[in-house]
């Protein structure tokens, strides 16, 4: 029996959301679309919702952030409900697992250790604790546990960080820049002789080294690329607006004209 009073209680909080999810997945009275879903089909939505949270934060759209966080929370509830149906675990167990992890990883807050540590020391302690957790899971390899499903750029950085912990890393940024030049030159010189598969491999190598440069510069490459995407969108929309003022669309223009308008959009931004 579903709890309709809870479902319609505007202040029902987390129990209300869990109950709504149960109702949506009820085999007799639930939503046909929700009933058809699996972990695999929902996973892309989970990733998308996480990016929408990041986007709202990037834009400082605080009014939107509450809703985006709710969408992301619902993804956790959805996965937990499917897991409960399979007898794997419940949402409460998910919450308990995270609570246990946070308590164990913060002995300087919840245990007997002193919290008179720098953020850098706490980060080192955190990594040491995670290393012990991986060992307990029989993850013996340096790169074990780096999720395959992460966005490729983010996973590249995580793989490189893991390798760097055991000394497999360039000691200076200059060497990374040299490697980028080398990879770019190889791709430029050989692109007419390579198969499409080989070109893809060479380009992947170049992107991987660029991710390494971001790590050496202490830059989040995902955030940097999101900012670049936003800048491109902003400036191209300005090109369209300037063309519209001339009674034209991009299809009615050419590269030379749009390039000049791009430069104008850049100058306008710098003057603000």
From TrEMBL:
<dbReference type="InterPro" id="IPR021130">
    <property type="entry name" value="PRib-ATP_PPHydrolase-like"/>
</dbReference>
<feature type="domain" description="NTP pyrophosphohydrolase MazG-like">
    <location>
        <begin position="37"/>
        <end position="110"/>
    </location>
</feature>
<feature type="coiled-coil region">
    <location>
        <begin position="173"/>
        <end position="200"/>
    </location>
</feature>
<dbReference type="InterPro" id="IPR011551">
    <property type="entry name" value="NTP_PyrPHydrolase_MazG"/>
</dbReference>
<dbReference type="GO" id="GO:0006203">
    <property type="term" value="P:dGTP catabolic process"/>
</dbReference>
<dbReference type="GO" id="GO:0047693">
    <property type="term" value="F:ATP diphosphatase activity"/>
</dbReference>
<dbReference type="Pfam" id="PF01503">
    <property type="entry name" value="PRA-PH"/>
</dbReference>
<dbReference type="GO" id="GO:0046076">
    <property type="term" value="P:dTTP catabolic process"/>
</dbReference>
<dbReference type="Pfam" id="PF03819">
    <property type="entry name" value="MazG"/>
</dbReference>
<protein>
    <recommendedName>
        <fullName>Nucleoside triphosphate pyrophosphohydrolase</fullName>
        <ecNumber>3.6.1.8</ecNumber>
    </recommendedName>
</protein>
<comment type="similarity">
    <text>Belongs to the nucleoside triphosphate pyrophosphohydrolase family.</text>
</comment>
<dbReference type="GO" id="GO:0046061">
    <property type="term" value="P:dATP catabolic process"/>
</dbReference>
<keyword id="KW-0175">Coiled coil</keyword>
<dbReference type="GO" id="GO:0046047">
    <property type="term" value="P:TTP catabolic process"/>
</dbReference>
<keyword id="KW-0378">Hydrolase</keyword>
<dbReference type="GO" id="GO:0046081">
    <property type="term" value="P:dUTP catabolic process"/>
</dbReference>
<dbReference type="InterPro" id="IPR048011">
    <property type="entry name" value="NTP-PPase_MazG-like_C"/>
</dbReference>
<dbReference type="InterPro" id="IPR004518">
    <property type="entry name" value="MazG-like_dom"/>
</dbReference>
<dbReference type="GO" id="GO:0006950">
    <property type="term" value="P:response to stress"/>
</dbReference>
<dbReference type="GO" id="GO:0046052">
    <property type="term" value="P:UTP catabolic process"/>
</dbReference>
<dbReference type="InterPro" id="IPR048015">
    <property type="entry name" value="NTP-PPase_MazG-like_N"/>
</dbReference>
């Amino acid at each position: 029996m579903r709890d309709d009073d809870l479902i319609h209680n505007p202040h029902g909080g987390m129990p209300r959301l869990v109950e709504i999810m149960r109702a949506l997945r009820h085999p007799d009275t639930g939503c046909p679309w929700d009933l058809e879903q699996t972990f695999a089909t929902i996973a892309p939505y989970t990733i998308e919702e996480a990016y929408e949270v990041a986007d709202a934060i990037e834009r400082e759209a605080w009014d939107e952030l509450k809703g985006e966080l709710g969408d992301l929370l619902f993804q956790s509830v959805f996965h937990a409900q499917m897991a409960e149906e399979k007898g794997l675990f419940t949402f409460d167990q998910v919450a308990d697992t995270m609570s246990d992890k946070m308590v164990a990883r913060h002995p300087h807050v919840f245990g007997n250790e002193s919290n008179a540590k720098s953020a850098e020391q706490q980060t080192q302690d955190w990594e040491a604790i995670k290393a012990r957790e991986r060992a307990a899971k029989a993850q013996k390899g340096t790169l074990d546990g780096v999720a395959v499903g992460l966005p490729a750029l983010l996973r590249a950085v995580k793989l490189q960080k893991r390798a760097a912990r055991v000394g497999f890393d360039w000691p200076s940024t200059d060497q990374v820049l040299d490697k980028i030049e080398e990879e770019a030159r190889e791709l430029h010189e050989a692109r007419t002789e390579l198969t499409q598969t080989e070109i893809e491999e060479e380009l992947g190598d170049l992107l991987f080294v660029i991710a390494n440069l971001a790590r050496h510069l202490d830059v989040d490459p995902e955030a940097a690329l999101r900012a670049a995407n936003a800048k491109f969108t902003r400036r191209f929309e300005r090109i369209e607006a300037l063309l519209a003022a001339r009674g034209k669309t991009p299809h009615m223009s050419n590269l030379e004209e749009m390039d000049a308008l791009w430069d104008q959009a850049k100058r306008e931004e710098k003057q603000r």
